[in-house]
Design brief:
7-stranded antiparallel beta sheet; ASHA1/2-like_C; Activator of HSP90 ATPase; Alpha-D-Glucose-1,6-Bisphosphate, Chain A, domain 4
Length: about 140
């Protein structure tokens, strides 16, 4: 992740699954649509990912009641299978995700640059909630 003047926030979770499964569930659109939401009243009806440096990704996040939706996307800048992902979001913010093998478990550490519209704590809570949802989905499947 390139240094910038944005605030960087880190969220993490330890998933009770091997790194190959965690990597697959994190990156395959069929799985992304099952976990990429911060709360039960939201979902991800669409996801695409061209998992290579220079490849684009996009996930539609939407309120289940149809009242609001947005696309979350960007471009991968680093792809090291089962180890590291880095990408630049559509608004230029940087994200780095490490997948750390810990025996039969995998620690996921995600560092993202904040945006200026919402409080940092709110952003941290939202990204952590999505990561927690990923953990719950991955461990149950």
């Amino acid at each position: 992740m390139q240094p910038s003047n944005k605030t960087a926030v880190t969220v993490e979770a330890t998933i009770k699954a091997p790194v190959a499964k965690v990597w697959k569930f994190w990156n395959e659109p069929a799985h992304i649509t099952q976990w990429c939401a911060a709360s039960d009243d939201w979902h991800a009806p669409r996801a695409e990912a061209d998992l290579r440096p220079g490849g684009k990704f996009s996930t539609t996040m939407a309120a289940k009641d149809g009242s609001f939706s947005f696309d979350f996307g960007g471009e991968f800048t680093k792809v090291a299978e089962n180890e590291q992902l880095e990408y630049t979001m559509g608004d230029g913010r940087q994200v780095a995700i490490s997948f750390i093998t810990q025996g039969d478990e995998t620690k996921v550490v995600e560092t993202f640059e904040t945006e200026d519209m919402n409080p940092v704590d709110m952003q941290r809570e939202g990204w952590q909630a999505i990561l927690n949802n990923f953990k719950k989905y991955t461990e149950a499947n």
